[in-house]
Write a structure and sequence with these properties.
194 residues; alpha/beta; Dihydrofolate Reductase, subunit A; eight-stranded mixed beta sheet; two-stranded antiparallel ribbon; globular
């Protein structure tokens, strides 16, 4: 049986995954609410393996800190993410990594994830890691694209267009929900458009 792979990404309405210079929004653009946070924690509490690219892993360690610093329990979502079994696909990083259950896999991301999907007995989830997931989508390895759209437009400060540079895809809507009356979570099955 092949493990399900979910590309999980947060976005502004205009398609940006983060903000740059002059963007003083705060985490989740300051628009997260209790329903979103509870839903997000439930998604990450499930048994799964996290798959990250090297750049996203480095950014997470910079933002979240190494696991040794995460002891107060004030941020249960990110604490859980740090504790998950994690595969970092990289040709530049070497182990051991700063997260307790993180390992580096060298090689082509398509080959690494093909093997992980065949061998894993738990679902795979990747948060961010845009270029990694664009390549995996093009190879037909992404089963679900989960986009959480926050109610902001960051046309001036937005960076990292979440699908900038990706191939063209047809999307089948599998699930949708509104959280806290303002944030949309959309889950699609992508198919390469020919």
């Amino acid at each position: 049986m092949t493990a399900t792979y979910t590309f999980d990404v947060v976005s502004t309405l205009d398609g940006f995954g983060s903000y740059g210079e002059g963007g003083d929004w705060g985490g989740y653009w300051g628009k997260h609410g209790p329903e979103f946070l509870a839903h997000r924690l439930a998604q990450y509490e499930a048994e799964q393996r996290l798959v990250l690219g090297a750049n996203t892993y480095r950014e997470f360690v910079e933002i979240l800190g190494p696991s040794a610093e995460r002891t107060d329990g004030a941020d249960p979502i990110n604490d859980r993410m740090v504790s998950l079994p994690t595969t970092v696909v990289s040709s530049t990083l070497t182990g051991p990594l700063d997260w307790p259950n993180a390992t580096v896999e060298r090689g082509d991301a398509v080959d690494v994830v093909t093997r992980l999907k065949a061998e894993s007995d738990v679902p795979l989830r990747s948060h961010g890691s845009l270029s990694l997931n664009h390549a995996l989508m093009a190879a037909g390895l992404v089963d679900r694209v989960q986009v959480t759209v926050f109610p902001v437009i960051s046309g001036r400060t937005g960076t990292d267009p979440i699908f900038g540079g990706a191939a063209d895809f047809d999307l089948e809507l599998l699930e949708s929900r509104t959280l806290d009356g303002r944030t949309q979570e959309l889950v699609y099955r992508p198919t390469l458009h020919h």
